[in-house]
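HUMAN:
Sorry, I am quite new to this. Are you able to go through these amino acid letters and fold codes? The numbers rather puzzle me.
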Amino acid sequence: MVVVIDCETTGLSAKTNRIIELAAVRIENDEIVSQWQSLINPGCAIPEEITRITGISTEMARGGQPIEVALQGFQKFVGSAPLVAHNAKFDSAFLETELNRQGHALPNDFACTLKLSKKVYPRAGTYRLQEIAKYVDLPTEGNYHRALADAMLAAELWLQIKRDLCAKHRLTDIDFSILRRLQDVSDVDLFLKSIKLT
């Protein structure tokens, strides 16, 4: 089981910006089984550029949950499951910062579909979520730059990466720990040949 997540934020810096939307998608036995999402009131105005990208206005966000309430729901949904995100460094930084403000930590392991895509699809050329999804022939209809739509697409990408690796290397399955290691190896094929997988 893994949980794929996505954050929408007021900007790029986890130190000075805030989360305005958070979503999570649970995968069990290689199927998406449940989802969770929350609009979050960041306690500040949302920049016009962010509203243009996400469609989330300051007025909309005012109706969202306080961050501490949203984080409680998020933590209840994800539990201790390994987490996955497209550009996990970004999402994990925001989550860790917000949780630290509440006196909590983020103990979950993280894997990154952005890093994995670069290793598994080296000829793709571009690795933005929607573009790499098109490259591997995933449906890309939806309201992107909204947390749940992006988390769902990243979940489908995660599953496609698994399918492609299993087909190429004649594996029945490939678990989170191996995929996490793959994102940092220099040669995916050589690495998979060098370890025993059942």
